[in-house]
Amino acid sequence: MTDMAFKIDPAPAPRWWQRRAVRRFLRHRLALFGLAIIVILVLACVFGPYLLPFDDLYIDLRARFSPPFSGPHIFGTDPLGRDLAARLFMAGRISLLVGFAAMLISTVFGSLIGIVAGYYGGKIGAVLMRFVDAMLSFPSIFLLLALAAFIKPSPMMITLIIAATSWMEITRIVEAEIKSLRERDFILAARTLGLSNSQIMFRELLPNAIGPIIVAATLTVARAILLEAYVSFLGYGIQPPLPSWGNMLNGAQQYLASAPWLAIVPGVAITLAVTGFNFVGDGLRDALDARSDIS
Amino acid sequence: MLRFLFGRLWQSLVLLVIVSVIGFAVLNLAPGGPLSQFALTPGMTQAQLARIAHQMGLDRPLPVQYWEWFTRLLQGDWGRSYRDNQPVLAVIGSHLWATLLLMGTSTLISVLIGTWVGVLGAIRRYSIFDYAATVGAMVALSIPTFWFGLIAIYLFSLRLGWLPAGNMYTIGDGSVLDYAVHLIMPSLVLALVNVAVWSRYMRTAVLDVMNQDFVRTARAKGLTRFAVLMRHILRNALVPMITLLGLQLPTILGGALVTETVFTWPGMGRLFLDSLGYSDYPVVMGLLMLSAILVLIGNLMADIAVAVIDPRIRLG
Question: Between the ranges A3-7, A162-166, A206-210, B48-52, where is the mean pLDDT highest?
Answer without folding.
Answer: A162-166
